[in-house]
């Protein structure tokens, strides 16, 4: 039954990709025939659709399906953004090959280069959209959904289950969650709607045996090395479960983003530190400077309106400057729209006197969840939509900040960064970052550091693009 489901899944995805490509191709043909001539002069009329379908569309379809297969896009289970990255990479490769075929064959009377290039542009948008719609709306559950068991520490299980539920494109559904305590015994707690159990590690087979027919994935997520004997467990499970995944220890970022490199015949792991490389920093700085300049020009009318509202709402200056840790540990003035009352300090003290339980929350998150007595009426609106951070575009142009980067920490927080201070300050702090799109106020100080280090080690232009889109 599982083999038939896998066959139908691949078959359905192939049909979806062919349909998507045809929609992009037909849209490109219509654009070339009816829209582009209004802007561009063509020396020849467009080729008939029948001529372009064969061999043009057929050749393009075969190349696209081949590249998608090479990149395992019919077998990978990824989040939307990860799959989109592989889709765009595959589409670009397929169309470059198609253009090479056109030039190599010299059969210009059978191909329309304008249609091919326009199809390329349409595909960049249509393929991610169609894939998301099909996987989350159209695919039958029996073909797409895989039952999963999550085994590990209770805190890690919670994080894994949350991510599975948040990303429907993974096609995973938690059937069983098995917390393991530090003594390698199963605890009696449970996440989500999964079943409760209280068994020892040696009873793993009897625990999973009733579910072997349904389980397609097992996720192992120990909280620290040695909590789960991974190798014996993997050897035991891989005989019955087709897909086994291991989540590295939370915070051990050396296990994330590593690349495998061989030293002769010896296997080695290359530890990434992408944003410590001068070329990457220069590339990031150049692109962000241009984008920040354009955004500041476009935002000027909004900035003027916000400034007037702040002045009308409460006494005090429009802007607020605060000392923050910057590049190489240099302290700079971070500029924001003022969102607090001038007597914010005394208001906070009075608030803690009335609500002493909130002091512990403040010490852990450096935030007050819910109603903050320091924030003005306009400030609440600005913070809700992150509009108070618009003036930080000036910081970007001055070279103090990046659009995307680590959290801009306070100078007094440097001691809390401990040995992470050097790597976190190797890059300019960001207006937004992983810390903002991954939980923001819900994250503890330690979790923010972990996300910042992950970002610095695994930086790419694609990661910056995803973070900016999620922030927007």
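Sequence proposed for the structure above (472 residues):
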């Amino acid at each position: 039954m599982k083999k038939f489901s896998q066959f139908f899944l691949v078959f359905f995805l192939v049909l979806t990709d062919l349909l998507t490509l045809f929609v992009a191709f037909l849209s490109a043909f219509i654009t070339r025939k009816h829209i582009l001539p209004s802007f561009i002069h063509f020396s020849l009329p467009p080729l008939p659709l029948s001529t372009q379908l064969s061999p043009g569309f057929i050749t393009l379809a075969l190349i696209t399906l081949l590249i998608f297969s090479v990149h395992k896009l019919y077998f990978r289970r990824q989040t939307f953004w990860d799959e989109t990255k592989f889709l765009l990479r595959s589409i670009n490769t397929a169309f470059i090959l198609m253009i090479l075929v056109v030039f190599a064959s010299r059969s210009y009377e059978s191909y329309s280069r304008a249609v091919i290039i326009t199809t390329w542009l349409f595909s960049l948008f249509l393929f991610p959209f169609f894939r998301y719609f099909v996987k989350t709306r159209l695919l039958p559950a029996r073909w797409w959904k895989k039952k999963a068991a999550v085994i590990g520490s209770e805190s890690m299980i919670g994080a894994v289950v949350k991510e599975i539920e948040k990303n429907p494109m993974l096609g995973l559904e938690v059937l069983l969650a098995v917390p393991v305590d530090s003594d390698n015994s199963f605890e009696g707690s449970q996440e989500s709607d999964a079943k409760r159990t209280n068994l020892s590690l040696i009873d793993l087979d009897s625990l999973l045996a009733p579910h072997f027919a349904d389980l397609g994935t097992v996720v192992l997520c120990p909280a620290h090395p040695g909590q789960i004997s991974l190798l014996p467990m993997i050897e035991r499970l891989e005989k019955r479960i087709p897909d086994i995944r291991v989540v590295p220890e939370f915070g051990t970022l050396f296990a994330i983003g590593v690349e495998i490199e061989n030293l002769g015949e010896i296997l080695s792991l290359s530890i990434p530190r992408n944003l410590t490389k001068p070329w990457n920093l220069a590339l990031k700085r150049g692109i962000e400077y241009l984008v920040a300049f354009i955004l500041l020009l476009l935002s000027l009318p909004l900035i003027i309106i916000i400034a007037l509202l702040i002045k009308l709402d409460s006494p005090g200056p429009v802007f607020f400057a605060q000392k923050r840790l910057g590049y190489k540990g240099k302290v700079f003035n971070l500029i924001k729209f003022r969102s607090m009352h001038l007597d914010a300090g005394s208001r906070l003290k009075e608030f803690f006197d009335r609500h002493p339980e909130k002091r512990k929350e403040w010490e852990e998150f450096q935030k007050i969840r819910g109603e903050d007595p320091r924030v003005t009426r306009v400030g609440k609106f600005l913070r809700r939509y992150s509009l108070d951070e618009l003036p930080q575009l000036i910081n970007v142009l001055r070279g103090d900040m990046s659009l995307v980067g680590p959290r801009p920490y306070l100078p007094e927080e440097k001691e809390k960064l401990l040995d992470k201070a050097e790597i976190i300050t190797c890059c300019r702090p960001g207006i937004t970052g992983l810390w903002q799109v991954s939980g923001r106020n819900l994250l503890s100080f330690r979790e923010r550091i972990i996300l910042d280090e992950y970002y610095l080690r695994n930086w790419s232009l694609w990661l910056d693009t995803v973070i900016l889109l999620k922030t927007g």
